């Protein structure tokens, strides 16, 4: 199995069996994200404990890429300190939008989504949940749209 099809396996698996799907009630932070171009909608809810993301859930409807991205993100950020989550967020956004950005071991399974760089229309699907996470962590603008 080559690397690219392995990555596709990860995306297919997370789309079929999204991890951490649902809603935390009550939640310490929440934000909604919308990608009108594709029709992806999601709601993120987070619990924080001592500057750390203790739990994250997402729900909503979206394409395979947006669902897989939110599922992979939830696994990646749960348990992280807020500062580490922000670093990961910036690293991921750079990886999927900057053609010069190289693979980074810190991204782990998130690297499975790097292939969207070749499909500009899908980049918003992969980054929607991360922009929504940023909004939730900043606690300001709670309704994010890619347009
Ligand atoms: Zn989409």
- The CATH topology turns out to be Sufe protein. Chain: A
Q: Can you write the helix and strand succession as a string? A: HEEEHHHE
- First-last Cα distance: 37 Å
Mean pLDDT equals 92
What's the total number of strands? 4
User: What ligand molecules are bound, each kind once?
Assistant: zinc ion
CATH architecture, by name, is Alpha-Beta Complex
3D architecture notes:
By secondary structure, the protein is of the alpha+beta class. The protein has a single domain, classed as Sufe protein. Chain: A. It is built from 4 helices and 4 strands; from the N terminus they run αβββαααβ. The chain has helices spanning 3-16, 64-77, 82-97, 120-138, and strands at residues 29-35, 40-48, 53-61, 143-145. The protein has a 4-stranded mixed sheet with strand order 3-2-1-4, with helices on one face. Helix 1 (3-16) crosses helix 2, helix 2 packs parallel to helix 4 (120-138) and helix 3 runs antiparallel to helix 4 (120-138). The protein is globular and about 40 Å long. The structure holds zinc ion. Zinc ion binds next to helix 2. Zinc ion binds at residues 35, 38, 40, 62-63, 65-66, 125.
Quick overview of this protein structure:
This protein has 4 helices and 4 strands, in the order αβββαααβ.
Question: Would you spell out the secondary-structure blueprint of this structure?
Answer:
Elements: H1 3-16, E1 29-35, E2 40-48, E3 53-61, H2 64-77, H3 82-97, H4 120-138, E4 143-145
Helix pairs in contact: 1-2, 2-4, 3-4
Bound molecules: zinc ion.
Zinc ion is lined by residues 35, 38, 40, 62-63, 65-66, 125.
């Amino acid at each position: 199995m080559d690397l690219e099809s392995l990555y596709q396996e990860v995306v297919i698996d997370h789309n079929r069996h999204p991890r951490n799907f649902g809603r935390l009630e009550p939640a310490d932070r929440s934000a909604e994200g919308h990608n009108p171009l594709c029709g992806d909608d999601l709601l993120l809810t987070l619990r924080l404990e001592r500057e750390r993301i203790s739990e994250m859930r997402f729900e909503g409807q979206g394409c395979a890429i947006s669902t897989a991205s939110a599922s992979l993100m939830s696994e990646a950020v749960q348990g992280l300190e807020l500062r580490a989550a922000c670093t990961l967020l910036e690293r991921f956004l750079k990886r999927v939008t900057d053609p010069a950005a190289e693979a980074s071991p810190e991204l782990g399974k998130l690297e499975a989504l790097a292939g969207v760089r070749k499909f500009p229309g899908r980049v918003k699907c992969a980054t929607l949940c991360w922009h929504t996470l940023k909004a939730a962590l900043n606690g300001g603008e709670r309704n994010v749209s890619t347009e």
